[in-house]
Amino acid sequence: MAMTDDWLYPLWIAHRGAGKLAPENTLAAFRIGAAHGYRAFECDVKLSADGVPFLLHDATLQRTTPERGTAGERSWSELSRLDAGGWHSRAFAGEPIPSLEAIAAYVLRNGFALNIEIKPTPGQELETGRVAAREAARLWAASRHAPVAPPLLSSFRPESLQGARETAPELPRALLLDTLWNGWFDIARALDVRACITNHALMDAALIAQLHGAGLRALVYTVNDPAEAQRLLALGIDGIITDAVDRFAPGDSLRD
Ligand code: G3P
Ligand code: MG
């Protein structure tokens, strides 16, 4: 199957907003990533108890907020009042957890691309995929006439991608792979994904050839080492998710 030419995502994608330079998955992180020249961002999205998609990596609150326990058991009203920046450094104290809607407003206003990683609270895989995709479709539809890429919906969980497909089949999907588990390629095809995003250590010439041969894009996470970036660029990688937004300038081509 030939690859279509409507892949609109920049090569370099800032991980969780700005990697480790700011509290992950906050608007402050996105602003720092953008200040370093990034035009595409990855973030992690799950659901509050009342069904609001919001940004948080972990299932629990303790690493990145003063609270403990399962984030998905709290209402959005509670979550939106937590300090998601003070754990990182004093400069970011009081930085809130953003809703997907707040981040969408920022990236759409700036013409940036967003990779929404659907990161469900365990047990909520299907529902998180359904709601995140429905909400993403609604938010991006509001800026239909702007020249922006649609949100790329990715997940390690096939059920979440299935949920996304049910509610917003038109939005592009990507399967995340930390290992090449049995049956991954057939599942990727069955879910009609546009890309696979693998742990960078898994990606080699044979895997890129397999993906490209099937009409799929090949992306990797999380690349912070220049030699590894150079290896992947030489192979013809289609996207690199990085924490090192201060080391890799997305305007500079390392391909030369
Ligand atoms: O989306 C790629 C990458 O973010 C997956 O790993 O744990 O950082 O969400 P993680
Ligand atoms: Mg992620």
TrEMBL record:
Domain GP-PDE: 10-252
Pfam family, one: GDPD
EC assignment: 3.1.4.46
NCBIfam families with a match to the protein in the record: PRK09454.1 (NF006989)
Keyword Hydrolase recorded: yes
Name of protein: Glycerophosphodiester phosphodiesterase
Species the sequence originates in: Piscinibacter aquaticus
One annotated GO biological process: lipid metabolic process
MF terms in GO: glycerophosphodiester phosphodiesterase activity
Gene: ugpQ
UniProt entry keywords in alphabetical sequence: Hydrolase
